[in-house]
Specification:
Order of helices and strands: HHH
Strand content: under 5%
Helix content: over 70%
Number of helices: 3
Largest sheet: none
Distance between the termini: 42 Å
Radius of gyration: 13 Å
Length: 73
């Protein structure tokens, strides 16, 4: 499978918007929220056959979320 960077990045934008909805629904930083983050980001990486770029991108997004959650506490 040839990695389609544009398609993937568009899906990352969609995922970030869905993440904002999940934060509102579950409460940012809650266990339920982080479960949603792990499950949904994993599915997105799986969709792109765990391509190294997809894994790095989603790791970066997760690290950003984790830092923001830690700053809230």
């Amino acid at each position: 499978m040839k990695f389609d960077y544009r398609k993937f990045m568009n899906e990352v934008v969609d995922w970030i918007e869905a993440q904002e909805d999940a934060a509102q629904r579950y409460g940012f930083g809650s266990v339920e929220y982080f479960n949603w983050v792990f499950e949904s980001s994993g599915k997105l990486c799986d969709k792109y056959e765990n391509h190294p770029f997809a894994l790095r991108q989603m790791r970066m997004v997760y690290e950003h979320i984790d830092e923001a959650a830690k700053q809230m506490n």
